[in-house]
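Readers outside the structure-tokenisation community will struggle with the description of the input data as it stands. For illustration, here is how one protein appears when written out as sequence plus structure tokens:
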Amino acid sequence: MEIVDEAIAGGHKIIVFSQFVRMLKLIEERFKQASISYEYLDGSTRDRMSRVRRFNEDESVSVFLISLKAGGTGLNLTAADMVVHVDPWWNPMVEKQATDRAHRIGQDKRVVTYKLITAGTIEEKMLKLQQKKQSIFNAVIEENKNPVFNLTWEDIKELFEWED
């Protein structure tokens, strides 16, 4: 709420992604209590394009709450200049694709992205997994290297918290 409140006060438009519809519903409830004007989209949303248009064109709509999986394709949200990922997804490419909803033809603003991570949680481990996966992607695709040589038994144990 602090990020959203400050962003709205600064005249920004925000996309908030979560992989959990229940989390989006909790945020939606807080927005209602705080009288924050928003749009909402999850897998059950039928009028996607009218919601996109309203967010992009209506100055009074400051926030778009979107399910990470439902918001992955076909959305052009160039009114946004801020993206917030409430919880990480194991695949960094899915998050990147979601963030790219704001980086479309017609975007004339700099877009800032936030990832909310709580220390000592599974989300922190997910972030580490994302970073590892991104480095593997970079090695294979961009540097044409074999990623298997970079993966260690310690990496696997840390992921699953195995102890010998």
